Queue: 4 jobs
Job 1
Amino acid sequence: MRETYGMHNFHIPVMGIGFTIDTPVKVAQFGISSVISLVDDILMEKMREFYSKKLDIPFHAISEKVEDFRAKRITTYLNMVDEMVQQKFHDVKSMMADGQKELDKYMEMLPDLSSIKEKFNELVHNNTLKADIQQWLNENLLTGNIDVNIMTKVDRVNYLEGNKLPSEYNDAHAALRGFANSNLNSSVVLSAGMSPSLYSYIENFEDFYPNTEGKLIKRIILKVSDYRSALIQGKFLAKKGIWVSEFRVESGLNCGGHAFATDGYLLGPILEEFKNNRTALTDSMFEIYVQALKTKNRNCPEVPPSIFITAQGGIGTSEEHNFLLEYYNLDSIGWGTPFLLVPEVINVDEKTLELLCEAKEDDLHLSDISPLGIPFNSLKKNTKDAEKQVWISNGRPGSPCPKKYVALNQEFTERPICSASRQFQRLKLEQISDQKIINGSYQKAVEKIVEKSCICVGLGTSALLVNNLETKIEGPGVSVCPGPNMAYFSKIVSLQEMTDHIYGRTNLIDNPDRPNLFIKELGIYIDYLKRLAAELPENPTDKQYAFLEKYRKNLIEGIEYYRYLFSTDKFFSGSESEVALKELEKLSAQLALSFQIKAEA
């Protein structure tokens, strides 16, 4: 029997930098897992000071003058979060008069078929002695995980007195060290692709290896977009004696934040491949893993540790949630974007909440504002972009770049700078002004340069505004990164209400025209193909055209897969299947027409 994921079969993924910076403090005591971003140690230090004052405990700042300050800030903040969660969880289980309401909330939010909920209700109904119920609660209730996220690409090199520091002081490396040195028994989510240097660095920390009981104190979650990537990365880490405990499959485009588009591979077929190859994936990794542990003279498990497969990106109804769990044998579903409307859980300021509630499909777009050069799902008219436009109008485009977390560009300087910074944009604009650019392409080049936004600040500022903290350095502008799914949620709700929606006990979507998540993703990918085709030069190379052809063929195969799925699987009702199949035909015709026009051109 496969190990269960936890008390719930959904989790809250990382959102931005500050939106989920303290979410575990608000949900972990109810058995719900969530993820903290480790990008911004400055924000974590401010939040630690905030909670220290709130709890009336001493606060000792960790100055930038302290050696390894970034890792130490992260460790100290995570330890504080863990302590707060454990105290809240203790209160939930204590069955004191004041805590009974929280215990009831814990039980009410569990899935209806939860064995824990059923047993608890049975004990209460049978008037079981309070002491016996208390013992049962202590033995059976679990907290949600306090997981953390590291974007492998955000691994800025750091300097001391003008001298470049060794790679272990790079931002992502220091974040990993901060997590590894913490008291947490949880996972680090590694996203944004494989980093051999960072992955190799994991070998230095004891908690990622099996202890004397064969348990992993710290675990690895890889966010992946397809099976092949999971297999390659899983084997790479297994060769180092590091086990991947979860593969978190994210829709390439139908997600919030940075969108790592596949070459036309769609979520359904990708999950099908994981479903069909789950045992093979585990076995191939375990064989390599055992050999690596033996070489290192470490404890070696006799059977493979658990591997969870989860999915996220665009899920919006309990029906979709249950289908993914049951049909693809998934362990948990990530619900991100809808939680942006749950201020009880997520740090979203009032102005941004208002914009999110009012957002329609046209207000949500795949932008080029990220300095990382990766497409970025964003909300039009967000206050950070409005701030950016003021700078442009005043003839001073670019951000002052107060935090420099994505200062990764070396086009003009030996020491990297950010492409959203005022320094970079001034230099880049000067460069193109000296070039002969005709037929209106100069203005397009200017717009492409100044479009970049300071998201490493904007994605964290909301946490400061919500908690009434100083934003003098950051400014008040907020970047927000919902997925396209935001268009179908329009009101502020509580944690209880959102959980009830996930489990089908209520419905928060009042728009009957919301498409199935697979159909929505397909439409987004076809639009993205059109965008790629439009960006081709007048005389594309054979390689460029072959890429688009491969992309198109993958989409066609995805459409065929969905035709079969919606026609044959008993999970879909007749009316739902009929609507989905009609939409598939429309999108199929749209795909053929858009590509044919480009091919003829």
Note: Residues 515-601 form one domain.
Job 2
Amino acid sequence: MTETPMERAFGAGAAAPAAETARRVAATMVAERERWPLWIPVCMGGGIALYFALPAEPAAWLGGFAVAVALAVAAGFRRRPAWLAVSLALLAASSGFAVAQLRAHSVAAPVLTTKLRPAVVIGRVVANEVRVNDHRLVLDRVRIEGLDADATPKRVRVSVRGQTGSVVPGQWVRLRAALSPPPGPAAPGAFDFARRAYFEGLGAVGFAFPPLHVVAPPDGEAGTDWAAALGRFRHAVTARLRAGLEGQTGAVAAALLTGERGAIPKPVLAAMRDAGLAHLLAISGLHVGLVAATLFFAVRALLALCESVALRYPIKKWAACAALAGTAFYLLLSGATIPTQRAFLMGALVLGGILLDRTGVSMRSVAWAATVVLLLHPESLLGPSFQMSFAAVIALVAFYEAWRDRRASWSALDAAPRRVLLYLVGVALMTLIASSATAPFVLYHFNRVAAYGLAANMLAVPITALWIMPWGIAALIVMPFGLEAFALAPMGWGIDAVIAVASTVSAWPGAVRLFPVMPMAGLALAAAGGLWLCLWRRRWRWLGVLPFVAGLLSPAFGDTPDVLVDGDAKLFAVRTADGALALSSRRTNRFGAGIWLRRNGQAAPAEWSENSDWLRCDATGCVYRAGGRVVALVRDGRALADDCRVADIVVSMVPVRRRCPSAQVTIDRFDLWRNGAHALYLDAGRVRVESVGDVRGARLWAVRRGGN
């Protein structure tokens, strides 16, 4: 008898079980056909992630070619449902790849490649963010002294000390500023600010020297577009809020209503973060939902007071229209961030469902919202805002779908105490579900977990939902009449209460737990497992629990570097015997050092012991011993004569112009200048070296020093 392909692959004895398993998987896939559309944004996200993960920029035609091939494959399998699902997934993934590639090329703009000495800069103010110690201006239509127009960035961002609060978006300013390219990652694999700046059109960042002068627009540059007008409006509202509520209370009020968080004092930000309440300061689904609900029920209640109107007209739909208009206004006022866009799209679908007499809360509405956001801003997939926002809402909607009937029976309870208990249980469940869903992304991006987040949210969320936001909406409504003070005062009481909760909870012992960096593979496992668990409805969904848990545990098995050196050749870090990082200086490059420590799960650096068994230093450098290897950390070229004869690895802050016979690896000032920060892993039997330049690859946003 001729062997079948299944028998040849698995053996005769295993062919039947394997075939039965394949048949069941195919049958289950077909039975879940109504859930297939939910995977469209997931597959799109996979294609987008593939584009950004490539080590080199792909050919411009590749995305369109992949879409064409996927369309042909889908057409060929249109009569075979299980294979059609696979081919449609490939089509969505190739579409995501093509959209990301198109977006990357469409936003291309000049970026500085080297630092500029202080020069005169003239530009139009796009944004003026008030911060604790300075103002941060974003300028467009820029002219820079001594720089050709073709090499001038489209936008620049500068920090200005002094009184610049009177400068409003739309005005033209002249200032003297020191500019540099947007900085790359502080360590291989760390957050890439330069990539985000590329997609925002920022080609330079820096600081300005006072004074700053408001000037007339250059010839041909007069007039204000809608973006500048909106920026001026947001700036004016923020100023009114901070004038009505002073200090940290006003800064938090501005964050809740206009999204301007720069003026919040660092201790308040730290307390909110450590208490697990940072999500209250980032405008997202909670805030947009509260705005929509407050406007909907308030308008409906007011219309119901008039009996003739309530009986003759669809006041519920009128209230939905008012809530939709109000949330659209709030979207623009808050700066239209990614979480706000997602929340607005979700809210619009819910309110649209009321207008069409249909249910708007469903996983399909989440999928369409994600698809729209990815089509408009595919780069947002890489940021914590998109990931955490959609992770939380997907998990909550999945729970809502699973417990819809039981929830309806609980909601029917009439007793007021039971309704209060139901609300508190709901807050606790929402916090647990959202915290669990976002945990992998919190670990990956922030390396920390707030241990008492549930307790803090049980107190702070009801205050925010039932007191702060309704008064905030009232303040915005009466602000045109100059009456906002009557609403801001009670709003401030609620904000002070939330800050008090954050300060108290964050001070509890063990409030924050730090973890080493999560591997990218761990994040991918957790995300895939969570999506599998939430998007399917049949029992096979529970297969997603295993990869989700494995992803959460992956930081314990991650690989952390033994030696780090920054791209400016000013700072070293080495691993001590107990696994902590010690820094060669606590004053140099504090920002980069903080990222190194956070990614190692540390709150503070270990002691740099210059006369220990593992580290010895003198005026010209240090010798570090770990894993049976000798690493020379050179500060002065005079040390190279000896180090090049005895060290296995030479890391030099000065150029190495001689051959180092003993060194397996040599990294000098030129390598650091070209490729940024380096990380060394002293694995058994070999030395692994990673640099920022190697990890980023040759991409559009990865501008190397001295050229592309």
Note: The chain is about 50% helix and 15% strand.
Job 3
Amino acid sequence: MPRIRQADVDEVKARTNIADIVGERVALKSAGVGSLKGLCPFHDEKSPSFHVRPQVGYYHCFGCGESGDVYSFLREMDHVSFTEAVERLAGRIGYALHYEDGGSAPETSGRSRLYAANTAAAEYFRGQLLTADAEAGRRFLGERGFDAGAAAHFGVGFAPRGWDKMLKALTAQGFTRDELSAAGLVSTGQRGVYDRFRGRLVWPIRDVSGQTIGFGARKLFDDDQGPKYLNTPETPIYKKAQVLYGLDLAKRDISRGDPRRVVVVEGYTDVMACHLAGLTTAIATCGTAFGTDHIKVLRRVMGDDNASGEVVFTFDGDEAGQKAALRAFTEDDRFNAQTFVAVAPDGLDPCDLRLQRGDAAVRSLMETKQPMFEFAIDRRLSGFDLSTVEGRVGALRAAAPIVAEIRDRLLRPGYERVLARRLGMDPTEVHNEVERAARGGSQTTRHESPRHEVTIDPTTGAPAVAPVTLASLPRTADVAVERDALMGALQYGHQIDQALLGRALGSPFRTPGLDAVREAVAAAPDRTRAGWVTDAVNSVREPYRSLAGELLMTPFPARNEAGAVASTTDLARRLIMRSLEHEKQELLGAVQRVPADSDGGRALRMRLRDIDVERQRFAES
């Protein structure tokens, strides 16, 4: 298989801003000179520990230890090969790749073909919406207030009624039946292979980066015996528990909002209605309840490491909608953001609300939102007759566990008072019942800290050596100088005098972990080449590689880049001075053991004079 030329690999990486790629999935904000941070996409966390340094093209998570360059990020997130990662980024910037044997591009993996098949299907469906057979689909959209421009904006298409029209169209483009089946676009039955979506209005479902990964299809004809909505089945690239329809369109406004707000609705047309009405941060789940994986995706986009964000759930006013809201409540404390529920007047969904009362009515939903805890309390109380003593006592017992689950010590007393007012009971009685409920549930909590498990080396069967981290280093002056010098070398080494840096890193460090990193940095053949730092970090031997990643990503203690470069230069001089001082002390000891008039004695004294001259020069520079 042809390989991409290394010069092209380096050039694509140099031309790609890693912050742009990571920023499509993670809300990033400034974290000091040359550093950005956000919530880690590789593990669940409530405070951001994931850092990106665009200048060196590297990321590192201080929580889980994941690190790498833009290629490794794409490979981990999208499960593509190295070649595919390079090709995808080259395509983004319009760079023509060359292959070592001069041949054409190598065959891509199955996942890339699935993305390509879904993209081709989306184009096919969009084209079919303009045909005479799609009149029912256009009428459906028009009756719900969506014109051709709205359909185009959301990529809405039409799947024709035949059994294999899409199948024939895509196989003519070179896709195999196996690929189309793996993408969830066709099914197999007694009739053989046939189109999964037939005679339906089709919405493309995209991931957060905008790639089409599946479809949602609404039936239009009475003779269609299938469900009202039919989605793509689970595939290697489509996981319904992790997909949020409209997030690719909403993410920019979510990350820029003040406050950062997400509006969770129930269907495709509701997302369309909200966006067209001005609520451009609306998203929806795809054929499944809102759950933990959806929250992880949203939190990374929101970057909700504080309580300033808002997540507003809009549900139908019927019983099913209320149950959906209460299911969302069970996940509430996984958000740092404040959570609310908004139910439209007369129980209308956003699409019907826009049709009947206009865009302003949809926007006004945000003015009527109710805190999630308050909504949950009201729903729990609605099943009791509060005009009787028995009803109020029963309602208190039912609602107290909800208040008991509030972790915020400032919020809980407030909701105890809310519950007391709803019930017309003494606040002390309510408080006592809430405390009783809290004690009763103290054995298990919704979020237990993960147990620390011993990692076993699969080769030796022995416990694996724990990685060395910055926090585990001794706190001494020598360690501080070595640590800061390596931070500067990794982050700004390409901007300082290379001879000076090489000299500073030429002598062993006194801390084993830092010395392992020093060896890798010192061995780098060209510290001015784009991507050199990634190669250096990756070449650090275990268990010190994670430490190298931390040194690269920890914000350097400087006010600006110029200050960081100056400080790194000064640290390099200090290392050289330290090395010269150490050599001088060694020579002074040797002088005592060698006759002064011998050749060895004279050579030692000459070296001592040279060291003093060098030390004076570095002291004055």
Note: Residues 470-620 form one domain.
Job 4
Amino acid sequence: MQPLNIPDINKALNLSEHLSGIKRGIEKESLRIQPDGCLAQTPHPYRLGATLTNDYITTDYSEALPEFITKATSDRERPLEELKEIHQFAYQHLGDEILWNMSMPCIMGAENDIPIARYGSSNSGKMKEVYRLGLGHRYGRLMQTIAGVHYNFSLPESFWQAFYESESFSGSLQDFISEKYMGLIRNYLRYSWLIPLFYGASPALCESFLKNKSVDLDELVPGTRYGKYATSLRMSDLGYQNKAQSRLNVSYNSLPEYIAGLESAISTPDDFYTEVGVQKEGEYIQLNANTLQIENEFYSSIRPKRVSQSGERPTKALRRGGIEYIEVRALDLNPFSEIGIEQKQIAFLDAFLLACLFAESSPINQRETGEYQENFRGVVRHGRHPDFCLSFNNKCRPLHELANYLLDKISVFSEMLDSAYNITEHVDVIKELRHQLTDFNGTLSGQIVRKIEERKDGFFPYAMELSTQHKQALINSSLAPEILQFYQSKAEESHVKKASIEKNDKISFEEFLANYYQ
């Protein structure tokens, strides 16, 4: 694994005047639960809009797993303001239901009691539903109820134009942007263990989630299992890091290689999925029997993205226009925030991503892939152990030593961002994280474990108390009438759009799928 080496910090400094134009967006999932803590069985509330066409409120895997989406903006505070507004609006229509503020679910019944998200009778709506049915058959429905926060990040056109002109690059501006973003992604993968170390917030879970499986977790209190030094069980093999995809070979060494790897996976038949079948009694139970049904099935902690046109697959969008932004997917819900994420987390991510962008980023070979994957797995299960070591070029290095080294590199960009916005938040968060390296009890995961140990009543009562407190706080902070009207109008418009799509479908579902995969 290469060090985070930044060969020309002056180049970054010369471009720092453009950093105030960084665009950010957030996608946040939360389970809807009943007052007794069980998963809500009610349909997605009609007054929140049509999940197929509402740009702000949709669902992820389950009908009971709403997803709130903010618009990309260069106003650094607006994403969290907007996310709070969406929460406030949603709570106007949830009745006695509560948004669960932990990534790991709790009181879970049988798998078939987890309702699949519904999107209506249109071909595009049916495709989204069948895709989710397929995920259930492939990985189990329980895994799909795990919630997280996705962070979307892009640098402004003025930044890229100035950066492009400062380098001797023979290709187009968009090729340059895509190449630099892929370099950022490679460095992120090398050091992404920093995110669960500091912001992992799922060290413990309810025994009901395990369904009597034999797992390497200790009992924290009766009914609660945990990893003594775990940071993010969500990102372990109990959650999204599913072993079923370990055979996939998707390269991040260039955008064409990344696209080719995903397109191969969505066109290559899989023996087990073939055995499951595509249809049962004339009804679709998955989109196809290939390694991936669609690109989004590939579980990665970061993705290169471009906004797709109607009916356009993600890889086609990337091939058409190159990378537009990146999506960071490693964040657990922050249970101490009423909306699941805090501004200081965004401040750290921005500085970290900039460090990854400006650092040297050689291609990743198979040995290095194994190394960074093992480091990530180690941190999510054992990262708070005081003597935990990581692999660095096949040598064991103390985690705290590597983390401090990386914070040194990242701090330069924290200073640049603070200068761009005339604040101190980015530098302050680095100071806070350095302190956490001397006392892991200060991390989100450390705070959660310590609190459950003190209370002695378990994961569920603690999580329920936090979730209920957050609901009350959001209900008590009322929306301005014009903001309420805005979200109401968007919900109403989404139903009109959905009805129009359903009315104008002119081809069969089979033909629709064939066109999509063509």
Note: The longest helix spans residues 481-504.
